Amino acid sequence: LRRARPEFRTMFGALNMAANMALSKNENAYLCPVNISDRFTKEGLQTLEDYAKRQPDVDVFYPNFKIVKDKEHKNVVGYQNWPEYTHENLLQENICGCSPLIKGRTFIEADSYWDYEYKYAADYDLFLRLVLDNKKFQLIEEVVGSHYEGEMPPELLKKYNEEIEEIRSMHTPFSFQDEE
After folding, report:
1. Which residue of 54, 98, 128, 133 is 20 to 30 Å from 122, comparing CA positions?
2. Rounded CA gap, 90 and 43, in Å?
3. What are φ and ψ of residue 63, in 5° steps?
4. Are 66 and 76 in contact (CB under 8 A)?
5. Of the candidates 99, 97, 111, which has an alpha carbon nearest to the alpha carbon of residue 20?
6. pLDDT by residue, tens only, the chain of 180 residues
7. DSSP letters along 67-105, please?
8. Where are the beta strands (DSSP E) in 122-161?
9. How far apart are CA 105 and CA 25, in angstroms?
10. Is the Cβ–Cβ distance between 83 and 120 less than 8 Å?
11. Backbone dihedral region for residue 118 (phi beyond 0: left; psi -120 to 50: alpha; all else: beta)
12. What is the distance, to the nearest Å, from the Cα of residue 105 to the centroid of all Cα atoms in its chain?
């Protein structure tokens, strides 16, 4: 498997590069990557912080969220209730994809950062690499925000799915075992 390092690569990796640089400078920080299509509730960030304080041994917290179909985040059409963490669940789907809270030290200890080669699924690749370093993941069952699911243009959806399949092919079920 490839190991991503913090460095300048391409313009499309600028956000990944900024996150990598910030994390490499402060191991006590937490990072909460938020997509432009995500919004927190008023209590959402506080909920994430409370979990981090109560469970300092957890490396990645991933929350549930509302699904909306409007950019104003008012038209709730469903809820994304993620399953409890298992390596197999993560391999099947990016269960950590919407506004996870990640401990900065996790990146440093695992020598893992966002890979600039991926334009659409770098977070999924990162989470699977963190699994290989035995990092601890925890579901936050509370809904901490909303995610706008707009229509993705077919050409972008195709590229996204290609990246997902490439990443999955590198992380077979034989690469890791579920914790008992």
Report:
1. 54
2. 26
3. -100, 160
4. yes
5. 111
6. 333 433 333 444 566 666 667 666 666 678 787 777 889 999 999 999 999 999 999 999 999 999 999 989 999 999 999 999 988 888 888 888 788 898 877 766 656 666 778 888 888 888 888 888 888 999 999 999 999 988 878 998 899 899 999 998 888 765 555 444
7. EESSTTS--EEEEE-PPPP-HHHHHHS-TT-SS-EEEHH
8. 137-148
9. 10
10. no
11. beta
12. 16
Residue 88 tokens read as: 């197999």
Residue that has been written with the tokens 């069952």 in this structure: 141
pTM for this predicted structure:
0.79
Distance CA 55, CA 167 (A): 29
Nearest-angstrom CA–CA distance, 23 and 29:
7
